[in-house]
Amino acid sequence: MRVAFSGTHRTGKTTLVEAIASLVPVHEVVEEPYRLLEDEGYEFSDPPSLEDFERQLRRSIDTVASSPFRDTFVD
Questions:
Q1: How far is residue 45's CA from residue 24's CA, in Å, rounded to a whole number?
Q2: Under DSSP, is residue 28 helix (H, G, I), strand (E, B) or coil?
Q3: Could you tell me which residues come within 8 angstroms of residue 70 by beta carbon, excluding any fewer than 6 positions away?
Q4: Is residue 18 scored above 70 in pLDDT?
C-alpha cells in the first residue's frame, strides 16, 4: 500500500507522516519532492512556476516508482 500526503508547505505534512510512520514501521517514508529537488540543486521560482510544479510531480512519480518497497508513505 502506498499513501501520499499532499498540501502546501508548512502545514504539518511531515509531522503527520512521522507520527504515522512511528506507528506503522514497516512502511518506508519518502521525502517530499520539493526537498529532494532542492537538495539536488534545483532552483525554484518565486512565486513557483508551472514548470516547478510539474518538476515536483515528475520527481514524486519517479521516487515512488523506483522504491523497492511496496509499502510507502510519500510526504
A1: 36
A2: strand
A3: 1, 2
A4: yes
